[in-house]
Amino acid sequence: MEKSATLNFLKPPFFSFFFCEVRNQQDTYPAVRVSYSAGRVRASASRSHEAVREFVLKEFNAGRALKVIAGLQNFDAENVAAVVIAADKGGATHVDIACDPELVKLAVSLTDLPVCVSSVEPDAFVAAIESGAHMVEIGNYDSFYESGRVFSAAEVLELTRKTRELLPFVTLSVTIPHTLPLVDQVSLAEKLEAEGVDIIQTEGGTSASPASPGVQGLIEKASPTLAAAYSISKAVRIPVMCASGISAVTAPMACAAGAAGVGVGSAVNKLNDQLAMVAAVRSIADALSLGSSSHVSSVSAVAH
């Protein structure tokens, strides 16, 4: 089906339904709303910063984070909105979008989940935070690998230091490039922790070529990021998020390997049907035992 035909839920009255339902939940984290709903960052308001950090890190600290990733270079507002709604209705705990102020404003109008923005340009993070984003991510490099662009450990460290200089109080997640040998991934993670990074994200799905079908193939695809999550989580104290190639089959394995949560992207953002997007998120949330009756009823609401 054509995307324009399958995403009609974004037009009235469906779009209005989602907007109203989400905004009616705004008392859930009142401290966060005070700090960010108007799109302003108050550097002197340490209590507000701490409230936002607690809001963002709560599910990571509980070892039950599920971040749905729209894509670092996905600036299609319609698709991003669909992914955000799927994350919200499917039971995710975080949503990750491209670092664009207008997309941030759209995302925070559609969900009360923490909104993360991804980029490899630290300067771009400032406007996104001012527009309402709750955390930033250096990473989600998959779209660069297709063109042969890779990131060295030294470059990732430099991007991290510059981001910390610009945004010393904002929750910062950094992806470890899977192109590095595993021992170097661990070493980089330790250095990033020393630089004040809050979350380490692993990757590896793009480097795996499953030789088997079905469940075995899903495990083979996730094996590089699972290996990285296991090794890195043994070396650092901060939360590790296992992303890239993760499915409902391998999400629990990631947590068993030491990850504090998982990130999923193409398993959701490449789908053209809203119900399928919600169902994909829901299956992983259920695999992580994140289910709730409110989200089950939300899937029914999408159908109507």
TrEMBL record:
Enumerate the Pfam families for this protein: DUF561
Q: Does the keyword Plastid apply?
A: yes
Query: What keywords are assigned to this protein?
Result: Plastid
Query: What span is annotated as the signal peptide, if there is one?
Result: none
Q: Which domain of life is it from?
A: Eukaryota
Q: Indicate where this protein resides in the cell.
A: Plastid
- Please list the coiled coil stretches: none
Entry's family note = Belongs to the ycf23 family.
Q: What is this protein called?
A: Uncharacterized protein ycf23
> What organism does the record attribute this protein to?
Sphagnum troendelagicum
